[in-house]
Structures are given as structure tokens and as C-alpha cells.
Specification:
The protein is mainly β and about 140 residues long. The protein contains 1 helix and 11 strands. The strands form 4 sheets. Strands 2-5-8-9 form a 4-stranded parallel sheet, with no helix packed on it. The protein is globular and about 35 Å long. The N and C termini lie far apart (about 35 Å).
């Protein structure tokens, strides 16, 4: 809001619940530029998951906004269990060898470890696991 920038990089936002409105990401009309890259945004069906006109989305698994031929992967709520182990205290850890493998594209400045300390690549333009966790 209020013209601020937002950068969501190597993040996992799944199964959020709300009574109204988007469940993964909402940008207000006065929001500044928003970037979602190398991430996973999948909500529990029924409503639009993403409402962010100022957003650019790349190398991510999205249940909304992915277009055939771009760098994103179209995902559904069913993919949550395909991509992740059952959640434990709200944390979804990635399963190996899913469509998230090699979906992300690491660039200088990106995190060199995932949320639990597993090393990521540190070579520009190298494929990497999308989302917060790398199995």
C-alpha cells in the first residue's frame, strides 16, 4: 500500500483461509511495484488467490495468473499435496522430484539457503527449487 515496493522471493504461501477476498496475495490500488519470483502461491479453492495488478510473477507455481508459455507453472489446490509433505505446525516442506524442481531461477542476491538451512545454488541463472523449502 501507499506506493511501497514488495518483493516475494523463494516463498511458499499455501492453504491460507479468509472469509472474503484473495487468500494468497492482495495489493491495494495505491500499491507500488510488486514482484513474486521463485515462489509458490496456492490457496484452498473457491476464490481468487491473487489480486495484484501491480505485480510481476516469474518462475513461480501459481493458482492464478499463470499463462501458458510464460515462466510460471499453473497449479491447483490438489498440487499442494503433490508438491509438499503434510503440513507440520503450518510449515509445508517440499517433496523431491516434483514440478517445483528447477522451476526457480537463482540470481545474484537471492538467498543461498532455504528456510531450514539447506544450501541453494549460488550461480547466476541456475535452476533451483521454487518456494521456501528445498528437499
Amino acid at each position: 500500500a501507499q506506493g511501497n515496493e514488495m518483493h516475494v522471493v523463494y516463498s511458499t504461501v499455501v492453504n491460507n483461509v479468509t472469509l472474503a477476498g484473495p487468500r494468497s496475495l492482495q495489493c491495494t490500488p495505491d500499491a507500488g511495484p510488486a514482484e513474486v519470483r521463485n515462489s509458490v502461491l496456492i490457496a484452498f479453492g473457491g476464490m481468487s488467490s491473487v489480486d495484484c495488478a501491480t505485480g510481476t510473477f516469474s518462475n513461480s507455481a501459481l493458482d492464478e495468473g499463470a499463462v501458458d508459455g510464460d515462466t510460471n507453472l499453473v497449479a491447483t489446490v490438489m498440487d499442494i499435496m503433490t508438491f509438499f509433505n503434510p503440513q507440520n505446525n503450518g510449515v509445508y516442506t517440499a517433496k523431491p522430484d516434483t514440478a517445483l524442481k528447477d522451476l526457480a531461477l537463482w540470481v545474484t542476491g537471492d538467498p543461498r539457503i532455504d528456510f531450514d538451512g539447506t544450501a541453494r545454488t549460488d550461480t547466476d541463472s541456475s535452476p533451483e527449487f521454487a518456494g521456501a523449502d528445498k528437499p
